[in-house]
Amino acid sequence: MDALTATLALMRLEGMGPGRYWQLLQHFPSAVEALEHLPQTLLQKLPERAQAQWREWQQCGEESALVQWARHERARCADLGVTLLCAGGEDYPPLLAEISRPPPLLYVRGHVNALRLPQIAVVGARRATSAGLDNARAFSRELAAAGFAITSGLALGVDAAAHRGALEAGGVTIAVLGTGIDRLYPRRNAALAEEVLAHGGALVSEFPLGTGAEAANFPRRNRVISGLSLGVLLVEAALRSGSLITARLAAEQNREVFAIPGSIHNPLSRGCHRVIRDGAALVETAADIVSELGGLLNDLPASSDGGSHQDAGPTQRLGDAERRLIGALGGDPRTLEQLARDTGLEAGTLMAQLLQLELAGMVETLPGGYQLTGEGARLLETLA
């Protein structure tokens, strides 16, 4: 029996859960040995059904219902194009592995390598205001254009707007589910989930196939959302909401927490104001987040074609819009309005391009405007 089958079998035991799983792994070098030598003190804490399952495995071994279920689960995953990741494996997301008692298993549909990208979680209310949805979409679009993957929960409202914003920028987005990966919830976001997959993203769940949308699953989902991410952006949230749980978990995991302030008359601003009072960073633009976390983009993996853009010259790395923007910047500081007029770019695209150039060290921000750095000025000469 290999480690993945043993982990599936252990997690199949009713009442096991990640907490008890990691207690076991503190005393045994592998999931295989933990399954083989399950201590009586722990076994007695599990429900009778779990005790019967384990004893039947001891008697029947590879023919036991426990092992047969694990093998069937692996076969179903293979049929559905789902990859199983086991904690401790080389493909397991490194940032998630750092949290206390991470999910022993992850079910991943789509691009597994997307989970290794620098991620920012964007979360908020399901019944968000129009302004909240616009903010979620715009911030996600600009952050994705700057090179971050956008992680959220595929829920209605802010989550869906965040995924769509990332897709509009041609970026990668990751949806973490509170159900089995074969049981999308809500169903009306099924088409959005397929878009996530089609554009290099991934769907992720720690729950076995067939798991339904149970209320207890969503705090666990939120823990994975924050655990995968460098930071969490709270867009709108009531004082009692799952999004505030995500922000709290992010703080406990030593991740950055950002929040967009709102009107004192909007109940959905109160959660954001609460986390700001508790130490979250108040943000007004995506650039506020990039200035805090942008340096971590240097850790981006090589592109999927097996190479890296790092070897290309600066001119080769630029798209037409960025070249046009560098030309518009010229030698003098320029305001956002001037750049929009001179380039013809709409505000969201313009901000995304400026963020990219700022991260590349070609543009710097001034009070009220932007100007080329020394490297940017040298590049301008090559474009002339």
UniProtKB/TrEMBL annotation:
It comes from the Bacteria. Residues 312-369 form the DprA winged helix domain. Residues 85-293 form the Smf/DprA SLOG domain. Belongs to the DprA/Smf family. This is DNA-protecting protein DprA.
